[in-house]
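Weekly structure sync, notes
Attendees: PL (lead), two postdocs, one rotation student
Agenda item 3: pending single-chain targets
PL asked that the sequence for the first pending target be pasted directly into the notes so everyone works from the same version. It is reproduced below exactly as submitted, 369 residues in total.
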Amino acid sequence: MTRSSNVSDTTGPDGETVPDVDVVCLGESMVTFLPSLPGRLADVPSFDRAIGGAESNVACTLARTGHTTRWISRVGTDGFGDHLVAAIADCGVDTRHVQRDPLRPTGIYFRTAGERATGVDGETTDRAEVLYYRAGSAASAMAPGLLDHDALHHARIIHLTGITAALSGNCLDVLRTLTRRTPGRPLVSFDVNYRVGLWRNPAQGPEILLDLARGCDLVFVGEDEAEAAWGLHGPDALRDALPEPTTLVVKQGAAGATVHDRQADGTDTVTHAPALKVDIVAPVGAGDAFAAGFLSGTLRDLPVHTRIRHGHLMAAASLTVPGDLGTPPARALADRLAALDAADWGTLRLGPDWTTDGVRTARVEVRAQ
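Predicted structure, written out during the meeting:
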């Protein structure tokens, strides 16, 4: 496997092993086929290849913003598996612990533009079409006994999502093991990522996800998926249902995000930060990018409000490209924009290539002054 050059093993003065990466992300990634033209999957004449996977999206974004990350998963010994491992490693992610399965294929999927269906009654019909070919995939065979304990736990943060829990009984066992509260474990981050279509028994999914979230330290959940899964409305209702995590991040779409953060005295501080105005190219991957931005701020011990803004900026980088992975802004630019006062933040509008186009970026910086 390929090893990122920015990963190093370290040993403490007493011989104990200390974290060798900032974040470990565990979960399935797939080769994604994006339509070359708008329209129904039945009518699209050709597709462009990309990669997609909630956990590897987070790992790649964090690595490209200067953090050390590791992706743990399983892929087939096929060409799609080769492509996934190489593409993720090229982002600077440590892929040494990705297992190759000669008996099972790498998952793939096809999608159109637009939001994924949430299962909320009455949602609009312009949701994306998504066709998964992942049943029996190599990643679905992940099991607690097959994973390297040290590779998982020698990190400051373990990041997981509810998608993994839906893949198989063995995958659910992996998440139950990693979200069990044990002494000395890393901070466990969990993005609910409720995908109603992935659950073989849709009635069990919400209960399982709520139970997993209760075992974590940092939880991300969207208001729409909370309504679909649990019938809960608003950050306060979600906090009542999830009192255990130290930090609860409620993503509210274009309205922004609200964070409940538990203090030493047992009370919560509640922080809201509005989202940015963005010229959206495709919405898929924005939630993963937001999580990466917030985790980056957490690793840097930034104030909660600033962490949320970094989440919004990373989401904006994803929203303005057609695939799952956008090019994140350089840290200096992200820090500069995150430090804007409320009025200037509210006037920003970000469009395609804002993180890479020198002229466009310069204009953003001028407005930011």
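Discussion points:
- The two ends are 45 Å apart (CA to CA).
- The first strand starts at residue 21 and ends at 26.
Action: rotation student to compare against the earlier draft before next sync.
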